[in-house]
Target: DYH5 protein
Amino acid sequence: TEVTEKLEEVVMIWTKQIRQVLVENEQIRREADDVGPSAELEHWKSRMSSFNSLLDEIKSSRVKKIISILQAARSKTLKQWKELDGRITIAANEAKDNVRYLYTLDKFFGPLANASPVMMEHIPGLMNTVCMIYCTSPYYNTSEHMTSLFLKITNQMINTCKTYLCEG
Model:
């Protein structure tokens, strides 16, 4: 019983830390007004890295041993743990999926950032790819994500035009 109580305390600490990570993950991002679309890809790559590290820790043999001991003891803390484990898995899958889809746009980021308004030839392909993401991505097809992406694409186009005009 004493060992179980100590292990439950450890799991409660982990639970609190994981909840904090999830809360921070759900907060609104603060970004510069003129940030381009590559920032969106970098954001999701960073989240993917964080959640994958967290998943690796959760799946470690040390954690698995503690959880199996608590399962044998029929601990009530496991209900919260399983719920958080599921939320972390979903967040990691979302980040991984979003990175995969946003990488399909990566080939447009360079031409979009070049200091020439000739980027217009790239717009149809870019829009088709954004449409494909919206139609097929199980996570990224929300109005929040799409609005953020379109805002960043527009920012990049404006910055490219400004640079072109200032150099001309």
Q: What stands out?
A: The mean pLDDT is 89. The two ends are 77 Å apart (CA to CA). The chain has seven helices and no strands.
